[in-house]
Amino acid sequence: MFWGFIFLATGIGWVLKDLGFLPKEMDIFWPLIFIALGISILFSSRKKPNSFVFWEKIERKDKN
Length: 64
Prior knowledge:
Layout: H1 2-19, H2 29-44, H3 50-63
Helix pairs in contact: 1-2
């Protein structure tokens, strides 16, 4: 969803620039892509593996 929003915003920006609604000098969309890439790399390293939750549920069942 995060990348979809970034690509959608970039595409809309390019269309508006081609139609003349945005000035040609206003090139803010490439930095947005690099910022989004950096944010996604930072947050992807913090994710826990999916098996963590699965093993935790098994341990809870054994304790009861």
